[in-house]
Design brief:
Helix content: 40-55%
Radius of gyration: 20 Å
Order of helices and strands: EHHHHHEHHHHH
Shape: elongated
Largest sheet: 2 strands, antiparallel
Number of strands: 2
Number of helices: 10
Structural class: alpha+beta
Strand order of the largest sheet: 1-2
Distance between the termini: 24 Å
């Protein structure tokens, strides 16, 4: 039965998939890359940091975003790849601020380089963006304790939607679980704090799911 408390609504579990689309922008050297970074739509910046989580991986990536990987594999510029890899999207309040940091990093590297690094014709960087398709699983939970038992079996698409994509949708730029728990007042404040304090950027979706499940389980074990 759904809760009758106005501020508490059932948690609706959604799943999702990403459809990858081209922006039509491709670059072959570092200067073109800098110029494109200044102009491409912000969703493209977001895609090249987070889209990898729902993309099939056949090997362990050496760097944690597409820009850094291309700097290393396409331009063979390891110093730039390492600097781009150190740029963490979770450190920035907006995608525009993240874009400016990327541009500054590339401009600094251009100033240091005697020659502009080029990639081979078959190693151009294609700026992409993604469209999210959301599915309703039909699962509904009124009580956070009931959700706990289901968390380990949620699909990676569910985790992406509720923990990654939610950071763009929620007012507090946090996850859907935390947003839902806030409706219960102070009862789950410590659990919300732990969820919001977890930075998912260096984790796979499987690891994120396990961490969320462990946080919920540990919280309710402490309450018992």
């Amino acid at each position: 039965m759904a809760s009758t408390t106005p501020d508490i609504y059932p948690f609706e579990v959604k799943d999702c998939a990403l459809i990858t689309l081209s922006t039509g922008t491709k670059v072959q050297n570092l200067k073109e890359f800098r110029d494109a970074l200044e102009k491409v739509p912000l969703p493209s910046i977001d895609h090249h940091f987070w889209g990898r989580l729902l993309r099939p991986q056949f090997d362990e990536p050496e760097y944690n975003n597409d820009f850094a990987s291309w700097a290393y594999r396409g331009l063979h510029d390891k110093p730039l790849a390492e600097r781009l890899s150190m740029t963490l999207p979770t450190d920035f309040d907006s995608l525009e601020a993240l874009r400016l940091e990327l541009v500054d990093t590339v401009e600094q590297r251009l100033d240091e380089s005697e020659m502009i690094p080029w990639a081979k014709a078959d190693q151009q960087f294609h700026f992409l963006h993604s469209q999210i398709v959301v599915f309703d699983t039909g699962l509904r939970f009124d009580d956070p304790k009931d959700l706990t038992a289901y968390l380990p079996s949620l699909s990676t698409g569910c985790i992406f939607y509720h923990f990654i994509d939610a950071r763009r949708r929620t007012e507090q730029r946090c996850d859907d679980f935390s947003a839902w728990l806030s409706g219960f007042g102070h009862r789950y404040q410590s659990l919300r704090k732990r969820l919001c304090g977890f930075d998912p950027y260096f984790s796979s979706l499987d690891e994120i799911r396990a961490h969320i499940a462990n946080l919920f389980q540990a919280f309710f074990e402490e309450q018992s």
